Amino acid sequence: MFLNHFVLLLQAQGDLNLDPLEPVVESESLLDVLLQSGMLTMIIVGILILLFIIGLYIFSERYITIKAAGADDEGFMERIRREISTGNMANARALCTTTDSPVARMVDKGLQRIGRPLRDIDAAVENVGNLEVFRLEKGLSTLASIAGAAPMIGFFGTVTGMINAFYEMSNAQNITPDVLAGGIYSALLTTAAGLFIGILAFVGYNLLVAQVERVVYKMERSTTEFMDLLQEPG
After folding, report:
1. Is 195 within the bounds of a domain?
2. What total number of domains does the chain contain?
3. Which domain holds residue 39?
4. pLDDT digit string (tens) for the chain, length 234 residues
5. What does pTM read for this prediction?
6. How many CB atoms within 10 Å of residue 149?
7. Which of 55, 89, 193, 208 has its CA 20 to 30 Å from the CA of residue 226?
């Protein structure tokens, strides 16, 4: 019984052997598929690549900027407190000038308004804070637009690619499954690329928003500490 099964297995393997004279079909690369997909698909792929480069630049630049703005300087407010308590406003302002951070610029604006009513000082500090938040959020709306537009552009490329594929098949005399699969494959590439870019932009956008929120919290905490310091009895 075992010998019979072994013989059948050898026969099956012999039947599966490829004919050495049979031509080998070479697989096409992704670039070859794109080059054969038509001019419109190439343009859409180029737009998606451009969106990817823009999104990567915005994320990298904003990540570095926001991280620097939120860098911890635990001793800054303590030094400001010490200078104000001794009445040395010049040194306090000099400290703010040499410290490159949103908190330092807000405190410096408050120091410039010393002697005016507290509500005026608070309003001036708040205005500077709003400006700093606007600077931190620069480019985030563009990144959010890329996150939403890239999948839609990719889907548009798929629709136009499918239309082109079916149009070519309608004019072809012999329609084979390989021809149909090739047209659909090249059309779906733009959707995959658009989704990939959109997901990366969406994740990057939310990561940057979370960082901005942490910096804003730190700014509000320092502002409250500064205003409390001004109201302490001399």
Report:
1. yes
2. 1
3. 31-67+75-230
4. 443 543 444 444 444 444 444 444 445 565 666 666 667 888 898 999 999 999 999 999 999 999 999 887 778 888 988 888 888 888 989 999 988 899 999 999 999 998 889 899 999 999 999 999 999 999 999 999 999 999 999 999 888 888 877 777 777 667 666 666 666 777 788 899 999 999 999 999 999 999 999 999 999 998 999 888 888 765
5. 0.78
6. 17
7. 208
